[in-house]
Amino acid sequence: MVRNLNFFQRVSVAVDVAYALEYLHRHCEEPIIHCDLKPSNILLDEEIVGHIDYSANKSRSLGLRGTIGYAPPEYGMGSELSTKGDVYSYGILLLEMSTEKRPTDERFREGLSLRNFVKATLPERIIKVADPILVEERVT
Q1: Torsion angles phi and psi, residue 83, rounded to 5
Q2: Is the Cβ–Cβ distance between 72 and 85 less than 8 Å?
Q3: pLDDT (tens digit, 9 = 90+) per residue, 87-98?
Q4: Structural domain count of the chain
Q5: 22, 35, 68, 99: which could form a disulfide with 59 (CB 3.0–4.6 Å)?
Q6: Cis link prior to 123 (omega < 30° from 0)?
Q7: Quick check: is 1 in a domain?
Q8: Mean pLDDT score of the chain, rounded to an integer?
């Protein structure tokens, strides 16, 4: 995904991705589980409309279950794929979009995760973890 999108562009992309997931999960003949929702699998067109790149998803055919940091922890323990896994990955994607920190960042080792990092700041210190571009927009 393109970095440095403003707040409204990010929200718009997040909504686009939510609609795409809803379509895959609820409006196909059988639910389609992406299994690897992450920024590099979100394509933006010239009007900054977000699209899920399903062609990049080879995880189901290879037996893999997503990308470390984005895949739900239960996938690592052998749980069955489910639409809930995509929803978990979507939540991590939203956290990354609002903090500009990747779940694979070096600081997220030894039990600390992006999810726990943000959760620990709520609600009093959320400005401390928010993407500086978003904070700057708020001030101006």
Answers
A1: -65, -25
A2: yes
A3: 999 999 999 999
A4: 1
A5: 35
A6: yes
A7: no
A8: 85
Q: What's the CATH code of the domain at 29?
A: 1.10.510.10
Query: Which whole-number Å values give the CA distances from 89 to 38, 92, 119, 139, in the listed order?
Result: 7, 5, 16, 30
Query: What separation in angstroms does the CA of 7 have from each of 54, 90, 134?
Result: 25, 17, 6
Is position 118 within any domain? yes
Looking at residue 29, its amino acid is: E
CA distance 17 to 42: 8
Would you place residue 124 in the very low, low, confident or very high pLDDT band (cuts 50, 70, 90)? Answer: confident
Task: Tally the C-alpha atoms within 13 A of residue 16's C-alpha that lie toward its C-beta.
Answer: 18
Take residue 89 and report the two structure tokens written for it.
Answer: 């990955």
Query: Residue 14 in contact with residue 49, Cβ under 8 Å?
Result: no
Q: Residue 30: what pLDDT?
A: 92
Q: How far apart are CA 30 and CA 74, in angstroms?
A: 22
Q: Which domain holds residue 125?
A: 7-139
pTM, full prediction: 0.84
